[in-house]
């Protein structure tokens, strides 16, 4: 048996996928620009984010 899917539903799925792809491209560009501005501080920023996540996980925040 084949599933019956309307053309409109397929177009909605494709539209959502394109919007998600476009949003990811924008976020990647912004983060790339931010990474260029931060330069050598990027590893420290990553350690800070990991530390905040660990503190939140152990309910220290």
Task: Give a concise summary.
79% of the residues lie in helices and 0% in strands.
Key descriptive features of the protein:
61 residues, mainly alpha, 2 helices, 79% helix, DUF7554, transmembrane helix, transmembrane
Which helices and strands, and how do they pair?
Elements (H helix, E strand, L loop, with lengths): L6 H32 L3 H16 L4
InterPro entries: DUF7554
Pfam families: DUF7554 (PF24431)
Keywords: Membrane, Transmembrane, Transmembrane helix
Specify the oligomeric state. single chain
Shape: elongated
Percent helix range: over 70%
Helix/sheet category = mainly alpha
* Low-confidence runs of at least 5 consecutive residues: none
**What is the percentage of strand-forming residues?**
under 5%
Compute the number of helices.
2
How many E-type strands?
Answer: 0
User: Largest sheet, if any?
Assistant: none
Order of helices and strands: HH
Q: In whole angstroms, how far apart are the ends?
A: 53 Å
**Overall tally of domains:** 1
The overall average pLDDT, rounded, is 83
| Cα gyration radius (Å) | 20 Å
Task: Explain what you see.
This protein is 79% helix and 0% strand. The chain is mainly alpha-helical and 61 residues long. It has one domain.
